[in-house]
């Protein structure tokens, strides 16, 4: 099913500017255009954009996001490298979560301390 840029942005919960930016920095390749030159997004495009957004929201740097997007273009040939990139990112997410849990424990200690003084 084809989607306009506005429909695509709405479905993904991003702005049209975000989609334009992703295209400008090379994260989106092969987006079809209609006869008047407007971008038309497919279900596959939405899926790819959703994954890229997930990776970005979870802290993947733009440079690595670009590399991942390039590897998406290679089909099965890049599957091993894509998997390696995702595994590395997954480990980084785990490390961030552990750090946040440590910080949360400290915040909760302060809450308990302030609560006990009230």
TrEMBL record:
Keywords: DNA-binding. This is DNA-binding transcriptional MerR regulator. The keyword DNA-binding applies. The keyword rRNA-binding does not apply. Gene3D superfamilies: 1.10.1660.10. GO terms for molecular function: DNA binding; DNA-binding transcription factor activity. Residues 1-71 form the HTH merR-type domain. The lineage of its organism: Bacteria, Bacillati, Actinomycetota, Actinomycetes, Micromonosporales.
């Amino acid at each position: 099913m084809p989607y306009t840029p506005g429909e695509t942005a709405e479905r993904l919960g991003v702005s049209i500017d975000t989609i334009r930016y992703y295209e400008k920095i090379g994260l989106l390749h092969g987006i079809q255009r209609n006869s008047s030159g407007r971008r038309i997004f497919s279900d596959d495009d939405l899926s790819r954009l959703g994954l890229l957004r997930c990776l970005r929201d979870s802290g993947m740097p733009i440079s690595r996001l670009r590399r991942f997007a390039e590897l998406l273009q290679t089909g099965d040939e890049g599957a091993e490298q894509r998997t390696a990139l995702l595994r590395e990112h997954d480990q980084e997410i785990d490390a961030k979560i552990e750090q946040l849990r440590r910080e949360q424990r400290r915040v909760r200690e302060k809450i308990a301390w302030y609560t006990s003084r009230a």
